[in-house]
Backbone:
């Protein structure tokens, strides 16, 4: 398998990882779902029986499998193979950008200048590591 193909698979799996992570986290960030007394039995039952929790768990599994796939293809690139899991961990930081976007769109959160700077730093770091 060529290095170019590996990078293509890494990009595809990073997109899957990022979307699954953002969707999973955003589903559980629903203020209506989180309201109430966290220490009560009623609250625990409401959360445990809610479809958002179970969909989030499924998406979290998709994200973990994607992480393994990214790591697999990073190992196939000789220049990155010696630190494959570390490189993979940095690549998956891109999911934070997707998470911020999902929270803005679906939870109506506001993004600060500091958060925008953080997004820029994440992107810069990932591109530097992949060179």
Residues:
């Amino acid at each position: 398998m060529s290095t170019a193909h590996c990078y293509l698979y890494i990009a595809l799996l990073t997109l899957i990882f990022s979307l699954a992570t953002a969707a999973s986290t955003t589903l559980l960030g629903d203020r209506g779902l989180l309201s109430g007394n966290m220490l009560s039995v009623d609250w625990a039952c409401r959360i445990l029986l809610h479809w958002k929790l179970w969909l989030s768990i499924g998406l979290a599994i998709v994200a973990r499998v994607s992480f393994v796939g990214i790591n697999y293809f990073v190992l196939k690139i000789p220049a990155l193979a010696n630190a494959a899991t570390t490189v993979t961990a940095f690549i998956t930081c891109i999911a934070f950008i997707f998470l911020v976007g999902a929270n803005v769109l679906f939870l109506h959160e506001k993004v600060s200048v500091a958060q925008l700077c953080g997004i820029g730093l994440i992107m810069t770091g990932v591109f530097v590591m992949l060179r």
